[in-house]
Amino acid sequence: MLQTRFTKLVGVQHPIVQGGMQWVGRAELVAAVANAGALGFITALTQPTPEDLAKEIARCRDLTDKPFGVNLTILPAIKPPPYAEYRAAIIESGIKVVETAGNKPQEHVDEFKKHGVKVVHKCTSVRHALSAERMGVDAISIDGFECAGHPGEDDTPGLILIPAAANKVKIPMIASGGFADARGLVAALALGADGINMGTRFMATKESPIHQSIKEKIVANDERETELIFRTMRNTSRVAKNAVSTKVVAMEKEGAKFEDIRELVAGARGKLVYATGNSDEGIWSAGQVQGLIQDIPSCAELVSRIVREAEAIIRGRLEGMIAQPSAQAAE
């Protein structure tokens, strides 16, 4: 068993996290991750109202007696969701760990901490990680450029970002973006992280609440099957490459503004992808890690395989590389 500062902080068995994913982070997936000994997060804003979120948390509790959390992403919006009400639903439901993401969550961090909730904040740069640490969060999730969703605007890949953050961040840190297997977990630990966060990999599991055709599409795709949209608007988002995302990128190159592409990128269309299995229905998130995903296991199979193989790499491959001094050299 791999014990780290992060597993001790949140009370889980394995240093593996299933972070918030819009339309995907539902009770059946989160409970399966929790039952596998890892940490899963329900995505708050997938639920249409704070009352629905409370019901989803209760549904997850019916499926597991292990710890799980809720993701609350704070993004600029013309008509922002009632964040304070979602926050209250999380606290009143007795959730003990929250993943925050997005703009300056100080108000939320303060309120969660007041109620004994541990806060893990997602960041895409060292400076944002240090800012979150100063805000009083308990752990950082550092997202490299490879990740699905929002990789920030610095384009720093995990191989640089993780150790750069580990050099400066004092609180526990999990690495995100490009992780799918034991090799990634061992690499993240070697780079100074205390665990890994996986999104796209958990989408392609038996319990993931998306259409089987999309799971199969993730397995079939290689590491080149993503697009970076909203680059020209400095709100970069990595999504699966399809007819819609390719069109959006082409329109941006021609100077399109957000209102010109609004209909193409609507969240309702992305939701349809997961419901219908038509991968060209709208925009949907997936990372470059698709190139490392070869099967659709259960969450239990996936987590146990990663941990078992990680221990084998550490004990076997890496330890075996340390040359023992010969008797002659010792004389």
Automatic annotation (TrEMBL):
One GO molecular-function entry: nitronate monooxygenase activity
Record lineage: Bacteria, Pseudomonadati, Pseudomonadota, Alphaproteobacteria, Hyphomicrobiales
Organism of provenance: Bradyrhizobium forestalis
Highest taxon of source: Bacteria
Record keywords, A-Z: Flavoprotein, FMN, Monooxygenase, Oxidoreductase
Family matches, as Pfam families: NMO
Protein name stated in the entry: Nitronate monooxygenase
